[in-house]
């Protein structure tokens, strides 16, 4: 699943560390999610999207046929 976290973070001028503190995970988790190595739980995806005042669908892009 692709995401726009890096783009949104940069537009809000916040670091990976700041985002990780806002959503309650480690910086390493944010790095893994941003790079597509890890898909967050629905709860974490919700918290990340809310930190950007976006919907989950605006942050995470589901790709058909990729599970």
From TrEMBL:
Keyword entries, A-Z: DNA-binding
Protein name: DNA-binding protein
Matching InterPro entries: Cro/C1-type_HTH (IPR001387), Lambda_DNA-bd_dom_sf (IPR010982)
SMART domains: HTH_XRE
Domain named HTH cro/C1-type: residues: 5-59
Superkingdom: Bacteria
GO molecular function terms attached to this record: DNA binding
PROSITE patterns reported in the protein's UniProt record: HTH_CROC1
Keyword DNA-binding: yes
Originating species: Paenibacillus glacialis
